[in-house]
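dumping this here before i forget
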Amino acid sequence: MFSIGELISYGCNGVCKVEGTTMMKVPGSREMHEYYVLRPIYRERGMIYCPVDVQRGFVRRKILTKEESLSLLSQVSEMDCIKFDSRKDFEEKCKTAVLSGECTEWMKVFKTLWKEQRHRQDTGKRMTATQERFMKTVRDNLCGELAVSLEKELIQIESMLQENLEKCAS
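structure:
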């Protein structure tokens, strides 16, 4: 169970602060269940109600430590891109990686899409809407979590990622 005030990663919602817990009825049922009350760090408004019961809901976990974040950033150049046979296969693998809630998987998607974006720019093309959506989701979640754990601004994390990717591209 998470503690009040703890920062966690919750699905595609990014880093959230646990504000407390509350009892709520499960939709379509008379049963009451305990829910976390989460406040997303990078959204000005809104609360998220997440079941405390691990059997239901999106992946949730403690955010990376500072050491884990630095290690992840240092491994970017050695990380493999996502291998795929078709656009549909690629989209399925991206979706699975995004929903995994794991920073390593997000980094693989980010690196793959970053390379694809560069390739498309070189040929005068744009990324597809689906690719752009995946890129935004993983960039927001990955950079958000790294920024919080490293106590840096989002723009600083984006620059660090860009530098690391540029190094492995050359």
